[in-house]
């Protein structure tokens, strides 16, 4: 894996080769990663792995024709062959009137913000093993736990660089750490399983493994002896670990490509009251130590903190250059990509702002409902917004969390859900997408 400056220069050099070979424009992406991990089960070491790899991807343009190729061989001969192959493919490609690099005037200039996403660490396997064991030991120590799927700990470092033929070259480096535990409670057909995990950019921010293990165990034991429930229309509360999936459906529906293809249930929602008043959804690429923080997007464009939804009103789409051209708008600085293919769009650190009601008070206001802690399957139609998913969680009866429930189905339409959802005040920044507990006042709930 190259250091950022070397990665940036490597990407720029292959762009220069492509221009010399006859490309009208080009960009290149370098991605390198070093990762290691340890897994344990029942107190014994189960797996140790370490890997290091790097790839470079080249996208070339000949007029409105484009092609992308990638290689894990970064030698001079391989780079020359990569350029030849890309140019030959572009010559045979169909024309795409929306193809092209991002607008030059929107390219990021200046020094990147200090995002503090690299702590420089590279822990020894023994330290990872101790962390994995501590997480599993804490989980197995909780009464009611009968078996373990294991504990794990990992560490990684990555370098990402991009260079374009119209004046951008930049690179970033980030570290990442994670720890998890998964255990089983009960016996035979009554067994239940659950898990807990945490990840962070800095090792010092990673949650204690004992806390992760205890949370995994308590979640698992809490699921024992689920009851059947009568079907009906009732309030559904989404625990933060599943509430983020609703934001995922929202982001997919406002992506420029979905809007350009007219395949989104939010096609006509721009500027409308999509959510209830008071709802705000933020996108923040500059959060220090954020899991999705970035100084520039994957086309080299400037990024900015923004409100995708303000007081319930949808403010705009997330668009990379190709879909932006199709929609007659400027790209929004949300391009994301790997080493192969063209960029898509996606948020940075996305979160729905907390509401003014505590979760406990929200629960107390529910006479009969469900708290969902796990979602199963897909069951979401991105064109119509129809929503139907398998779920598990807990009954809410007379304002209290009661018996666990499993094998239920919750259904509604995402537009209706968005229009009525109520956020609690328990937002915590733990992922790339974060949400407080969310309540949808009316959903159809049925036993599977």
Automatic annotation (TrEMBL):
<dbReference type="Pfam" id="PF01523">
    <property type="entry name" value="PmbA_TldD_1st"/>
</dbReference>
<protein>
    <submittedName>
        <fullName>TldD/PmbA family protein</fullName>
    </submittedName>
</protein>
<dbReference type="GO" id="GO:0008237">
    <property type="term" value="F:metallopeptidase activity"/>
</dbReference>
<dbReference type="InterPro" id="IPR045570">
    <property type="entry name" value="Metalloprtase-TldD/E_cen_dom"/>
</dbReference>
<dbReference type="Pfam" id="PF19290">
    <property type="entry name" value="PmbA_TldD_2nd"/>
</dbReference>
<feature type="domain" description="Metalloprotease TldD/E C-terminal">
    <location>
        <begin position="232"/>
        <end position="446"/>
    </location>
</feature>
<dbReference type="Pfam" id="PF19289">
    <property type="entry name" value="PmbA_TldD_3rd"/>
</dbReference>
<dbReference type="InterPro" id="IPR035068">
    <property type="entry name" value="TldD/PmbA_N"/>
</dbReference>
<feature type="domain" description="Metalloprotease TldD/E N-terminal">
    <location>
        <begin position="26"/>
        <end position="90"/>
    </location>
</feature>
<dbReference type="GO" id="GO:0005829">
    <property type="term" value="C:cytosol"/>
</dbReference>
<dbReference type="InterPro" id="IPR036059">
    <property type="entry name" value="TldD/PmbA_sf"/>
</dbReference>
<comment type="similarity">
    <text>Belongs to the peptidase U62 family.</text>
</comment>
<dbReference type="InterPro" id="IPR002510">
    <property type="entry name" value="Metalloprtase-TldD/E_N"/>
</dbReference>
<feature type="domain" description="Metalloprotease TldD/E central">
    <location>
        <begin position="121"/>
        <end position="224"/>
    </location>
</feature>
<dbReference type="InterPro" id="IPR045569">
    <property type="entry name" value="Metalloprtase-TldD/E_C"/>
</dbReference>
<dbReference type="GO" id="GO:0006508">
    <property type="term" value="P:proteolysis"/>
</dbReference>
<dbReference type="InterPro" id="IPR047657">
    <property type="entry name" value="PmbA"/>
</dbReference>
